[in-house]
Write a structure and sequence with these properties.
This protein has 12 helices and 14 strands. The protein has about 325 residues and is an alpha/beta fold. The strands form 3 sheets. Strands 6-7-8-3-9-10 form a 6-stranded mixed β-sheet, sandwiched between helices. It has a 4-stranded antiparallel β-sheet with strand order 2-1-4-5. A 4-stranded antiparallel β-sheet has the order 12-13-11-14, with helices on one face. The C terminus is likely disordered. The structure holds adenosine-5'-triphosphate. It is found in: Cell membrane.
Length: about 325
């Protein structure tokens, strides 16, 4: 499979500070790719370079087969961008917003008309094409933003936190549309997110920290590297149970409000042994495979939930492309 995006030893400095610090990346064509990282990790700066809004200080990157620094116009012709903040004109109708974008992309009138109709249809907005965007709900606006990012028939769509600020139901609807888009058009979706549930649905995930990719793989691969199940055990006496676990099983237990937390390689095998060999009544037990949150914590030392607010966005860097 060819790569839609490749970056090798990519650097970006703001003054003397590296925001992107030797980043390597390979994004398979046609995949849904999640780019995760704590605040300030360099996600937006990386996307800015990949979308030709910012020139790399060093290293190289290719998008849709073209070098971002040497052939920026070719790259721009093949990408779409959905910014984090809404950039729609609220006074215009849905169709007018798309027509404005089609003009920016330089589409001839007839092709523009066909592209607008197709995108409104794909995002299920055809019925609302003549409605001013001011009357749209947040979820509808997001769908229109995505439709607009698609007007130039991009091969790669960049989405900077596409579902931030949406409720769970709307978020699911936006993802339904994105999945459909990927299925029907074979487009590569590259998005940043703080929502680990969304990253779970990705074909591949890269975790970036301090300007470098610290790990990349399918969600299952990343979790298998952590290699542990989380077992939570509630007994008649958790303090005594913790001692027994250390003495009899050589396991270090961490007290939590829910019981004793154990990280073990194979919870399903261990739990029956614990129930018979602990010498204490087990009141409750649960086994959970590692989550992407655990993976994130393992690689960055921070829980993703701690790193949600603030930060630069593509919007602040991306004035030039609108
Ligand atoms: N325009 C700028 N001028 C100076 N420093 C910047 C600028 N944009 C980003 N930085 C710095 O570069 C580093 C990487 O920032 P970037 O916005 O790329 O991270 P991020 O991973 O997108 O973070 P967030 O999740 O908060 O959006 C941070 O230390 C940030 O403060």
């Amino acid at each position: 499979m060819t790569d839609a995006i490749r970056a090798e030893a990519l650097y970006a400095y703001y003054g003397t500070t590296p925001a992107v610090n030797g980043l390597d990346l390979a994004v398979p064509a046609g995949s849904t790719f999640g780019f995760l990282g704590p605040n300030g990790a360099g996600k937006t700066t990386t996307i800015s370079m990949l979308t030709t809004l910012l020139r790399p200080t060093a290293g190289r990157a290719e998008v849709a087969g073209f070098d971002v620094a040497e052939r920026p116009a070719e790259v721009r012709r093949r990408i779409g961008i959905v910014f984090q903040e809404s950039t729609l004109d609220l006074e215009l109708t849905a169709a007018e917003n798309l027509r404005f974008q089609a003009d920016l992309c330089g589409l001839p009138r007839q092709r523009a008309r066909a592209a607008i109709a197709a995108m409104l249809d794909l995002m299920e907005l055809s019925q609302r094409s003549r409605v001013p965007v001011r009357q749209f709900s947040t979820g509808l606006r997001r769908r229109l933003e995505i439709a607009r990012g698609l007007i130039g028939s991009p091969r790669v769509l960049f989405l900077d936190e596409p579902t931030t600020g949406l409720d769970a139901q709307t978020r699911a609807a936006v993802w339904d549309h994105l999945d459909r888009l990927r299925r029907e058009q074979g487009i590569t979706l590259f998005f940043t997110t703080h929502q680990l549930e969304e990253a779970e649905h990705c074909d591949q995930v890269a975790i970036v920290d301090r300007g470098r990719v610290v790990t990349q793989g399918t969600p299952a691969e990343l979790k298998s590297v952590i290699g542990s199940d989380l077992v939570v055990l509630r007994t008649e006496d958790d303090a005594r149970a913790a001692d027994a676990l250390a003495e009899r099983f050589g396991l270090a237990a961490e007290p939590t409000p829910d019981g004793l937390l154990l990280r073990v390689s194979d919870g399903a095998t261990l739990v029956p042994r614990l129930c018979t060999g602990l010498g204490l009544t087990v009141r409750a037990v649960s086994i959970a495979p590692p989550s992407l949150d655990d993976v994130f914590l393992h690689h960055t030392g921070a829980a993703i939930r701690e790193s949600q607010a603030g930060g630069h966005t593509l919007d602040t860097i991306g004035e030039g492309l609108r």
